[in-house]
TrEMBL record:
One of the Pfam families matching this protein, by short name: ZT_dimer
Domain of life: Bacteria
Listed name of the protein: Cobalt-zinc-cadmium efflux system protein
Organism per entry: Micromonospora olivasterospora
Protein family according to the UniProt entry: Belongs to the cation diffusion facilitator (CDF) transporter (TC 2.A.4) family. SLC30A subfamily.
């Protein structure tokens, strides 16, 4: 006997709740990206090119987030997609991490090449566009901040905007330094600083996405603690075949087999077990199979 608790429609999809803000950030950053890229080409600024490259990944990442929202909504009506398309959010976050890593590595390599013979940079347009980029990133930062803790996809876009925001500050500093002192090394140095700052955060985002894709247990949950809590439910004498994983951001899922005492009542055991998972671990979606204690192991061997 088993029981499940449908969580998909009970809790709003985090990225969906912030859809309007995503569209606003997408339009704002898209426009500034084109301005920055054109100005970087005209002025020869590697730091500004780095900032434009990071902004491109912001725009692409937010676009993928919006596409994932649309696809997830359409999949809800498909009976063959029993878990919807929630994992598209995670795939989009992983794509963001890979793209941003590629841009950062390119800028680092180009900066190393420029240290030998730093080219002259036109500082006036570079400074003006960097200030515009800073204002745009501040606006996008405010738009995405609210959803960054709820959705791994929004967290990816948020981290990229944070990197761009700091990058814009660096470009402004480099432009001012070059203008005041003609120290041309400031441009590649700022480009390197931007890359070094963003890479570790990008790798952490990628690692979080991979953990979800391989269905590892959430880092903030101890599977042994979940096991022991279920075993402590009145009427449960043994717990086995326990699995805990993350479907998408903020949506933990569990399944387990519970061996019951001979005099236990199925409904009471299931209710108590669901309540324990909800209150102690915030697991809303659980599929629990109960088995009579007189037939241990009657579910058969499992290879996973």
């Amino acid at each position: 006997m088993g029981a499940g608790h449908d969580h998909h429609h009970g809790v709003a999809y985090a990225a969906e709740r912030h859809r309007g803000r995503l569209w606003a950030a997408f339009g704002l950053l898209g426009a500034l990206m084109l301005v920055e890229a054109g100005t970087a080409y005209a002025t020869g600024s590697l730091a500004l090119l780095s900032d434009a490259g990071h902004m491109f990944t912001d725009v692409l990442g937010i676009g993928m987030a919006l596409a994932a929202i649309t696809a997830t909504r359409r999949a809800a009506a498909d009976p063959q997609r029993t878990f919807g398309l929630y994992r598209l959010e995670v795939l989009a976050a992983l794509g963001n991490a890979l793209l941003l890593s590629g841009v950062a590595v390119y800028v680092l390599l180009e900066a190393v090449r420029r240290f030998g013979n730093p080219p002259e940079v036109t500082t006036g347009p570079m400074l003006a566009v960097a200030v515009l980029g800073l204002l745009a990133n501040l606006a996008a930062f405010g738009l995405l901040r609210g959803g960054a803790q709820e959705s791994i996809n929004l967290r990816g876009a948020y981290l990229e905007v944070l990197g761009d925001l700091l990058g814009s500050v660096g470009v402004i500093a480099a432009a001012a330094l070059i203008w005041a002192t003609d120290w041309w090394w400031a441009d590649p140095l700022v480009a390197v600083a931007i890359g070094v700052f963003i890479l570790p955060r990008t790798w952490r985002l990628g690692r979080a996405a991979v953990r979800i894709l391989v269905q590892a247990a959430p880092e903030h949950l101890q599977v042994t603690a979940v096991h022991d809590r279920l075993a402590a439910v009145p009427g449960v004498v043994e717990v086995h075949d326990l699995h805990v994983w993350t479907l998408t951001s903020g949506m933990e899922v569990a399944s387990a087999h519970l061996t019951m005492a001979p005099d236990a009542e199925v409904g009471a055991v299931l209710t108590a077990a669901r309540t324990a998972l909800h209150e102690d671990f915030h697991i809303e979606h659980a599929t629990l199979q109960v088995e009579p204690g007189t037939s241990p192991g009657n579910c058969g061997p499992t290879a996973w």
